Amino acid sequence: MMDGGICSYDVDACVTLQQEELAVLESIYPDYVWLDALKTTIRLEIPVELPEGTTVTVQSDTAAARSIISESEWSDGYDDEFSSPPKAHTTLSVLPPVLLDVRLPPTYPHAPPQIRTIHTTYSWLEDDLRVNLEKILAALWVEGEGALYTWLEWIRSGDFLDALHMSATADGKRIVNIPHPTPGLLMPMLQEFNISTQAARVSATSYACQVCSTSVKGARCVVLSCSHVFCRSCLESSWKQCIQEGNVGRVGCLNPACVEDHQEATEEEVRHVVAGEEVAEWKRLRAKRALDTDMLCP
């Protein structure tokens, strides 16, 4: 109803709606929702999920890079002509969290939620993009409806990257472009976060080994670069035997499709599965194979 030209609502009813919305969020995303001690500010800590095979490019704005990179560094490692700004790219499945600090006014959801701060872990989203993100989030609020779940899902799914013109599709695969003044500094942090997140998920999940079909906790499994999963004992037994027999080409994924494609293990994967002496022998066999191949070439 109207009171002196100002809309007034039943505050107790609004508080109940807020509590119900928060309870739903916490039940679905317990690791994403935090309340401060006074329960006046809500922090949403939202990792950004990317489709499998997403290419992430970090490319510097030349002017921004010039402002923080010395002349000597620029001339040593960057394009002097400014025609190709420094960049780095890799394949990622997740980006570090977007952090929203939100205050709900007493009459929310009839009054808009107030975004106090927007930040990203490792500051991968630049200031102008964060300002635009705040404006878009504000526009998503509909009077009388909860906004927090909509915001969380929109960020978690990575859809906001399209709205910020940071994402495109080429040949059926998604490409995300992150402008940043120092790609060489940011990219290793993005890669490390991606690796640690994947490792945590693997450790918390049970998988069926593709050899023995036993269900094993992820911490006792090995996830290969091709995404196939095996229990460590099956992989160790197979790879040790192949190394002992000198069949270095079979030290790789045991999935039939990967065997047919000659999918070999990386050195990091081999070190993760077999002992140091087997690793040394595997490296010796690989070097010998490469030498033999070179000698056969005309």
Describe this structure in words.
- This protein is an alpha+beta fold and 298 residues long.
- It has 2 domains: 2-196, Roll (Ubiquitin Conjugating Enzyme), CATH 3.10.110; 206-296, Herpes Virus-1 (2-Layer Sandwich), CATH 3.30.40.
- 43% of the residues lie in helices and 24% in strands.
- It has 11 helices and 12 strands.
- Strands 3, 4, 5, 6, 7 and 8 form a 6-stranded mixed beta sheet that branches.
- The termini are far apart.
Brief descriptors of the model:
298 residues, alpha+beta, Ubiquitin Conjugating Enzyme, 2 domains, two-stranded antiparallel sheet, elongated, disordered N terminus, zinc-finger, transmembrane
User: What does the radius of gyration come to?
Assistant: 26 Å
In CATH, what is the homologous superfamily of the largest domain?
A: Ubiquitin Conjugating Enzyme
Characterize the quaternary organization of these chains. Answer: single chain
The helicity comes to: 40-55%
Q: How would the global form be characterised?
A: elongated
| Helix and strand run | EEHEEHHEEHHHEEHEEEEHHHH
Mean pLDDT: 84
Which CATH C-level class of the largest domain is it? Alpha Beta
Pfam families: RWD
InterPro entries: RWD_dom, UBQ-conjugating_enzyme/RWD, Znf_RING, Znf_RING/FYVE/PHD, Znf_RING_CS
Keywords: Membrane, Metal-binding, Repeat, Transferase, Transmembrane, Transmembrane helix, Ubl conjugation pathway, Zinc, Zinc-finger
EC number: 2.3.2.31
